[in-house]
Amino acid sequence: MGLQRECAVIGCQKPVKHRGLCTNHYSRTWRGLPLLGPPRMRVRSCPMCGASWGVLPGRKATVYCGPRCRRLHLIATHRASNRERDEQIVAGVQAGELHRVIAERLGVTTSTVSRVAARYGLRRVPYAPRRRA
Fold first, then answer.
1. Structural domain span for residue 84
2. How many beta carbons lie within 10 A of that of residue 122, not counting itself?
3. DSSP label at 62?
4. Do β-strands 42-45 and 52-55 pair in parallel, antiparallel, or remain unpaired?
5. Is residue 94 part of a domain?
């Protein structure tokens, strides 16, 4: 074994791993962070609730503070495009149309029609078999 030396950073007594620095200080140098003091952090804020948090340089920054805000944002952005479709589904179910007929007319699946109807508290129309020509 070679001579064990200490890290070149003042106050650090860890053994040298590379270029006169310990593992922690070498990795900070490699990532472009200052050797001493806390690392510079970028501040991010959630577009839904406004919560703020710090992100280390070189790390992937998340957009939302958590899964709840992410889900709420996705619902809010997609809701506008789906509102007209949902209104047509509700009108069809209230008129007594079969889910299969509504699905074929709007180009969605019958499970989508059922899900939207359940969301609005509408009950399913009894099943009617397809008529063969």
1. 67-119
2. 15
3. P
4. antiparallel
5. yes
Helix 99-106 with 67-94: angle, nearest 10 deg: 110
Instruction: Give pLDDT tens digits for 11-43.
Output: 888 888 888 888 888 888 887 777 777 667 778
Read off φ and ψ for residue 78, nearest 5 degrees.
-90, -20
* Domain annotation covers residue 4: yes
Give the whole-angstrom CA distance, residue 116 versus residue 105. Answer: 15
**Is there a contact between 109 and 103 (Cβ–Cβ < 8 Å)?**
yes
The total number of structural domains in the chain stands at 2
Report the 10 Å Cβ neighbour count for 117: 21
Residue 126's CB: how many other CB atoms inside 10 A? 6
pLDDT of residue 4: 63
pLDDT in tens, 72-121: 888 777 766 688 888 899 999 889 888 899 999 999 999 989 888 888 88
Q: Is 34 helix (H, G, I), strand (E, B) or coil?
A: coil
